[in-house]
Design goal:
It is built from eleven helices and twelve strands. The protein is of the alpha/beta class. The longest helix is centred in the first third of the chain and has 17 residues.
């Protein structure tokens, strides 16, 4: 250990949100109830540590139902949500399934359906090919929902005829980026209908606000999370925009940049909504070998949201 003192500003809230907690619990309870193996369509949450842990307990991960050899085993749908066609396919195959879609994603799905029924053409603000976006677009027939990914898309967006339009958003976006896109859409379509309640979920919002609060006081900022975790990648962007240019993602294959940390007095740490706290602790423990550490946890809000697992697992 060098005697170099390093202050860590630990962002709170961080890590697991209620939707992720519930999804993991659904897999664990399904294994307890139905025995192993149970199948999970798509990574239950975007984190290698979580996925590997569940594999060890008896979960088998697949991308499509067709890959499941034994159709008598239950299948679980990931927290990101699935297109309508997937549960229908499972029923046609006589497969039993448990839907672990986060309730806040399900809310956006219902919103899309209700707007569609009310005659609205829908714009979804989100990232192409992200499983949540695929799931939300898959609630409606092709052509009734369009994806807008950024400000350029919003500026170039054209609508045929005088359709009523509404927008909805992916739940894990950057609040600031989304605000800019929405401004453009509202200017182009003054009548556009917005969600009754913000679609970006409470956990995404809270984690971004916490990072914003501390990033400007940090020489470097680290977000523990996976590369395919939308909310983790957004946290890195938020830290950069909030005054810490030197922000980076620490994922399962990352090497800790000790040489750069050596030049820091204060670093910030947060974690994405699918990253377990053990990964944060491991990262801090690694730093303790090299530095004399002082940790200050900065909590902007207490989270007490809990989502119940489906009754069929109790």
């Amino acid at each position: 250990m060098s005697n170099k003192k390093l202050k860590i500003l630990l962002s709170a809230p961080r890590g697991f949100c209620a939707g992720v907690e519930r999804a993991i619990e659904i897999v664990e309870k399904s294994i307890q109830k139905f025995g192993a193996p149970v199948y999970v369509r798509h990574e239950i949450v975007h984190n290698k540590h979580v996925v590997d842990n569940l594999k060890n307990k008896g979960a088998i991960f697949v991308e499509e139902l067709a890959e499941i050899k034994d159709k008598s085993r239950p299948v679980i749908f990931s927290a990101h949500g699935v297109p309508k066609k997937i549960p229908e396919d499972a029923e046609n195959l006589n497969m039993s399934y448990v839907d672990a879609t986060c309730p806040l994603v399900s809310k956006v799905h219902r919103e899309a359906e209700n707007l569609n029924k009310a005659g609205y053409h829908i714009i979804l603000i989100g990232h192409k090919n992200h499983p949540e976006v695929v799931g939300t677009m898959g609630q409606l027939s092709t052509g009734s929902i369009d994806l807008v990914q950024n400000e350029d898309d919003a500026n170039n967006y054209q609508i045929n005829g005088d359709k009523k339009i509404a927008y909805i958003t992916q739940t894990t976006l950057s609040i600031d980026d989304t605000i800019e896109i929405i401004k453009i859409l509202k200017k182009k379509f003054p009548e556009i209908r917005e969600p009754m309640k913000e679609d970006i979920c409470y956990a995404t919002t809270n984690r971004q606000m916490a990072v914003k609060k501390i990033a400007k006081n940090c020489d470097m900022f680290f977000v523990i999370g996976s590369r395919n975790s939308s909310n983790s990648v957004r946290l890195v962007e938020v830290a950069k925009k909030s005054g810490c240019e030197n922000a980076q993602l620490i994922h399962s294959e990352s090497k800790i940049p000790y040489d750069k940390i050596q030049n820091c007095n204060t670093i910030g740490i947060s974690s994405g909504a699918s990253a377990p706290e053990i990964l944060v602790n491991n990262f801090i423990n690694e730093l303790k070998f090299k530095f004399s550490i002082i940790i200050e946890e900065i909590e902007i809000i207490k989270e007490n949201v809990v989502f119940k697992v489906p009754n069929k697992l109790n």
